Amino acid sequence: MLSVGVGPVSLSIGHLLLVFAFVVALIVGAIVGRKHKTPIAGTLSDIFVVAMISARIGFVIRYYEHYQGDWLGMIDIRDGGFDMVSGLIVALVFGGFLMWRRANSRRALRHRHGRRPADLGLYHRHSGPD
Description:
Blueprint: E1 3-6, E2 9-12, H1 13-35, H2 41-62, H3 64-67, H4 84-101, H5 103-119
Antiparallel strand pairs: 1-2
Helix pairs in contact: 1-2, 1-5, 2-4, 4-5
């Protein structure tokens, strides 16, 4: 597995890409939040932390037989164990919950998600004959 070591910390390329994607999301969130005059970095951070914790819990539940005798091993993330499906599902549910509860950041978060299909050209209007 490819990894990058910085001092005592060694991160796999997948984890580095995840951190990079989170930083990009924070930058885009800051730009969109500034447009709507609403800070959404805290909301994005909350979603990220809850998703990572739930992904770890999902991984430990999936491989519980390996962690039965090692309770400290459950929280040791050096094995790289995160269940992507459970993390993604919880991130979507928690993000929806936060959008429902925090009305001020709802427009800023929904703005980016609502624009994505239009950015990809999925809702392109056809004006004229084929």
